[in-house]
Amino acid sequence: MTTYTTIQGDTWDMIAFKVFSDETLMIQIMNLNLDYIDVSVFSAGTVLQLPDVSVVEETASDLPPWKV
User: Fold this and answer.
1) Domain that holds residue 44
2) What total of structural domains would you count in the chain?
3) Given this model, what pLDDT does residue 18 score?
4) Three-state secondary structure along 24-63?
């Protein structure tokens, strides 16, 4: 499993966009990091787990063809 180390000011949607270019994947990131679920804006140095590529691909395949 991959990790992401936050920088000051990161938010869930910003992290999802930086890593996967899709802020809607923040839900999967949040589900893997329930210890930080109450954090809205991260300080620097928090290590978060990221979903595997297969999870991201599975989510993308649920989209209509014009959004893939």
Assistant:
1) 2-67
2) 1
3) 97
4) HHHHHHHHHCHHHCCCCCCCCCCEEEECCHHHHHHHHHCC
